[in-house]
């Protein structure tokens, strides 16, 4: 038995209202200052890792330490120990500076901590997520019944798609696993697709060799003729095709597979058609650019990451499906301890991968409500325009642009005299004024720069060009 029920050491975990307010205010102020310093400083980490590990080893958690010392320590470690995706000259992998409404959402959710497993216990939260997902689905051109779920990210959404495809192709997969299939199940993505597909194939039990990496057309897009030929060949030899997953915005080059042609091949072969639009999907926000995604409306399911171009905080993807009636046969389960359900198809624990789940959707709901489609449309158009500026400036310095993307990513081959791409990128990153990455596009080494930050300016773009030129 505890000696008293009054405040003691536990007040470190649950401080009184006055102390909470104090540290809340402290955090608000200090984080704003830290953000300002980050924006002015190095994009890359400036931490001495050996010293940091030693300091960290000092945390043995024996005696309590005052929060007033811990909070500034943690902020300082973040400030020095990260590649700063919130820096306007971070032109990197699709890690955004989060929108302010998304950050507000995290704060609100942190307080109420709703359990999103069940619609009975968190009706308001479940309805907000559902409403938001359906708005995205309709904006992508899906029919009114289309719905979906917020996920930890694109990988979980793609994993959900493959589970649906397998269950759709062979309902006994749900009970008997891959043994239920007449032959080895296989699915199709392009060589330029996101290779988390390999891990996903492993997780669903069909193995990594089930991933057919279809040839691309020399411009980073799935070659539709090769796709059709591979499906036919696999059927002919007793393999069981279950899904075609086109990529709308490849991670490396921002290329969009021929969505309508892939849909047609899937339809003819009776396969699940998934579109992985993890980052490119945000184009739906722009009236001017959304036509590039034409064909996406034919998808049985799609992945759009809110934590990429919709710029929510990390860990927020979306799985959207035109066939929600399948979900209970993939994820259904009944237990005695969950609250009785008034409307089981609304309960996330029987329609999604996760069980206990954070209220992720508020981040996108709040941002979309605050900015409207117009605001998000401007956000993506702005990024595309800045990428155009970068392309032109690099081309003017003799760089060759390898990708012809309608998204905000530039894959550039340096002119003679710059040496190999990877050491070149290493020098740019080490100098700390900008962050770009090295990637392979259609088998060629390129410098990859992706506009991910909603407040990057034309001056920042010119500074990135200078940083690249200076790394010669
Ligand atoms: C980022 C990305 C993924 C993986 O998504 P996570 O959110 O990182 O899990 C999948 N596909 C594409 C096209 C991506 O760009």
Describe the structure.
The chain has 472 residues and is an alpha/beta fold. It has a domain at 105-367: 3-Layer(aba) Sandwich (Aspartate Aminotransferase, domain 2), CATH 3.40.640. Helices cover 41% and strands 12% of the residues. The chain contains 14 helices and eleven strands. The chain has helices spanning 17-40, 49-57, 67-80, 100-112, 123-139, 154-169, 173-176, 196-203, 224-236, 259-269, 327-331, 362-396, 421-431, 458-470, and strands spanning 147-151, 185-190, 211-214, 240-247, 272-276, 301-305, 317-321, 400-401, 409-413, 437-441, 444-450. Strands 1-7-6-5-4-2-3 form a seven-stranded mixed sheet, with helices on both faces. A four-stranded antiparallel sheet has the order 8-9-11-10. Strand 10 and strand 11 form a beta hairpin. Helix 4 runs antiparallel to helix 12, helix 6 (154-169) crosses helix 8 and helix 9 (224-236) packs parallel to helix 10 (259-269). The longest helix is centred in the C-terminal third of the chain and has 35 residues, at 362-396. The model has no long low-confidence stretch (mean pLDDT 95). It binds pyridoxal-5'-phosphate.
Key features of this structure:
Aspartate Aminotransferase, domain 2, single chain, 14 helices, binds pyridoxal-5'-phosphate, globular, alpha/beta, 12% strand, 472 residues
């Amino acid at each position: 038995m505890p000696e008293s029920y009054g405040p003691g050491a536990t007040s470190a975990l649950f401080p009184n209202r006055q102390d909470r307010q104090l540290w809340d205010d402290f955090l608000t102020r200090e984080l704003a200052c830290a953000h300002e310093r980050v924006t002015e400083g190095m994009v890359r980490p400036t931490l001495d890792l050996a010293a940091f590990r030693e300091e960290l080893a000092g945390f043995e958690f024996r005696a309590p330490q005052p929060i007033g010392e811990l909070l500034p320590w943690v902020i300082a470690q973040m400030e020095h120990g990260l590649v700063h995706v919130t820096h306007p000259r971070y032109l990197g992998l699709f890690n955004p500076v989060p929108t302010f409404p998304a950050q507000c959402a995290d704060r609100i959710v942190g307080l109420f901590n709703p359990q999103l497993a069940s619609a009975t216990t968190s009706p308001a939260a479940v309805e907000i997520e559902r409403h938001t997902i359906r708005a995205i689905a309709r904006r992508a051109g899906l029919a009114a019944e289309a719905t979906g779920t917020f996920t930890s990210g694109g990988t979980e959404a793609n994993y959900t798609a493959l589970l649906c495809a397998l269950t759709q192709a062979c309902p006994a997969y749900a009970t008997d696993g891959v043994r239920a299939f007449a032959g080895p199940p296989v699915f199709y993505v392009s060589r330029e697709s996101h290779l988390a597909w390999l891990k996903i194939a492993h997780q669903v039990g069909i193995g990594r060799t089930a991933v057919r990496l279809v040839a691309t057309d020399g411009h980073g897009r799935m070659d539709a003729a090769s796709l059709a030929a591979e499906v036919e060949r696999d059927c002919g030899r007793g393999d069981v095709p279950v899904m075609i997953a086109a990529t709308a915005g490849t991670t490396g080059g921002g290329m969009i597979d021929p969505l309508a042609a892939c849909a047609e091949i899937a339809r003819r072969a009776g396969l699940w058609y998934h579109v992985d639009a993890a980052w490119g999907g945000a184009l739906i926000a722009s009236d001017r650019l959304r036509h590039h995604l034409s064909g996406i409306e034919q998808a049985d399911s799609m992945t759009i990451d809110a934590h990429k171009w919709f710029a929510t905080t990390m860990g927020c993807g979306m799985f959207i499906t035109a066939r929600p009636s399948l979900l209970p046969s993939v994820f259904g389960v009944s237990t005695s301890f969950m609250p009785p359900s008034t409307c089981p198809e609304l309960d996330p624990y029987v329609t999604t991968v996760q069980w206990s789940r954070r209220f992720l959707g508020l981040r996108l709901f709040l941002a979309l409500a605050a900015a409207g489609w117009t605001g998000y449309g401007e956000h993506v158009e702005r990024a595309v325009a800045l990428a155009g500026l970068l392309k032109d400036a690099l081309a003017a310095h003799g760089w060759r642009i390898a990708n012809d993307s309608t998204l905000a990513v530039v894959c550039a081959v340096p002119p003679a005299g710059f040496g190999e791409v990877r050491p070149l990128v290493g020098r740019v990153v080490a100098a700390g004024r900008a962050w770009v990455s090295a990637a392979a596009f259609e088998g060629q080494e390129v410098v990859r720069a992706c506009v991910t930050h909603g407040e990057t300016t034309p001056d920042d773009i010119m500074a990135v060009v200078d940083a690249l030129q200076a790394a010669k």
